[in-house]
Amino acid sequence: MLLSLKLVCASLRRQRFHTSGSHSKGQTAAEHLWLTRHLRDPFVKAAKVESYRCRSAFKLLEVNDRHQILRPGLRVLDCGAAPGAWSQVAVRRVNAAGADPSAPVGFVLGVDLLHIFPLEGATFLSPADVTDPRTIQRVRELLPGGRADVILSDMAPNATGIRSLDHDRLISLCSSLLDVAPDVLHPGGTFLCKTWAGSQSLGLQKRLAEQFQNTRTVKPRASRKESSEVYLLATQYQRVKGPVED
Ligand SMILES: C[S@@+](CC[C@H](N)C(=O)[O-])C[C@H]1O[C@@H](n2cnc3c(N)ncnc32)[C@H](O)[C@@H]1O
C-alpha cells in the first residue's frame, strides 16, 4: 500500500515535469500495468488539475461532502499526513490559512513518519511516529487548547503483502490513536480512520461505537473497488478523561 502510494505520488510529481508516457527499462510488467492504469485514473488527473499532492485528496473531499466533518474554525489532527493532500483539503475546509476573512480560522496539524513539505496554513510534525507518547505530548502542545475537533487518520503501515498481517498492523495503528483520543479529542469531536477490512474490523467498530454517538463505514469512490480499504467515521465523541482546557 505504501509502495503504491509512493508510486502514485511519484507519478504525479513526474507528470508535472514530463510529458512522455513511456516507461523505464527497469520496470516490471506488473509495475507497467499498474502505472498505465494509474495514469488513466480520473482522480490522478483531477489531482493534477487541482494541484493536490495526491489523489487521496478526493477520498476526504467525498467523505466531507457527504458528512460535513470539516468547517471553518475547527482544529484538525491529520495522522499519516504525507505527502499532504488531506492536509491541503483540511486547510481549505477549516480556513486554516485565513483565506476567507469573514470565516473563523481553523488549525491543521499533520504528523507523519516521513518528511512533509511545508504547506501554507498547516503545521507539520515530521518525522514523527503517532504511536510514540512523545509525539502525542508534542501534538497536545501544538494544538490550540491542547485538543483537536477532528482526528483524521489515513495512516498505512509498510505493506508486507500478507493480507492478515497488514490488516492487523493497520488496526493496531488505529487503536493506538483511539487510545490517546481521551487526551487529544475534544468532546463532540470526529474520528475518521482508514482500515483494511479483516477479522479485527468489527472489534475496532465496537470500540468506536462505545465512545462515539454515531459510527459508520465509508467507501469513497476514489478508494479503488478492488482494495479492501474502507474508512470508519465516528462522530460525537463522548468519552473524556482529564481536564478540557478550552
Ligand atoms: C496513505 S499515506 C497518507 C496519504 C495522505 N493522507 C495524503 O493525502 O497525502 C499513509 C501515511 O501513513 C504514514 N504512517 C504510517 N505509520 C505511521 C505512524 N506510526 N506515525 C505517523 N505516520 C505513519 C506513512 O508514513 C504514510 O505517509
Automatic annotation (TrEMBL):
Residues 52-236 form the Ribosomal RNA methyltransferase FtsJ domain. The active site is at residue 194. Keywords: Acetylation, Methyltransferase, Mitochondrion, rRNA processing, S-adenosyl-L-methionine, Transferase, Transit peptide. GO terms for molecular function: rRNA (uridine-2'-O-)-methyltransferase activity. SUPFAM superfamilies: S-adenosyl-L-methionine-dependent methyltransferases. This is rRNA methyltransferase 2, mitochondrial. S-adenosyl-L-methionine-dependent 2'-O-ribose methyltransferase that catalyzes the formation of 2'-O-methyluridine at position 1369 (Um1369) in the 16S mitochondrial large subunit ribosomal RNA (mtLSU rRNA), a universally conserved modification in the peptidyl transferase domain of the mtLSU rRNA. This activity may require prior 2'-O-methylguanosine modification at position 1370 (Gm1370) by MRM3. Essential for late-stage assembly of mtLSU required for efficient translation of mitochondrial DNA encoded proteins; methyltransferase activity is not required for this function. Gene3D superfamilies: Vaccinia Virus protein VP39. InterPro entries: RNA_methyltr_RlmE, RNA_MeTrfase_FtsJ_dom, rRNA-MeTfrase_E, SAM-dependent_MTases_sf. It catalyses: uridine(1369) in 16S rRNA + S-adenosyl-L-methionine = 2'-O-methyluridine(1369) in 16S rRNA + S-adenosyl-L-homocysteine + H(+). The gene is MRM2. It is found in: Mitochondrion. GO terms for biological process: mitochondrial large ribosomal subunit assembly. GO terms for cellular component: mitochondrial matrix. The keyword Acetylation applies. Belongs to the class I-like SAM-binding methyltransferase superfamily. RNA methyltransferase RlmE family.
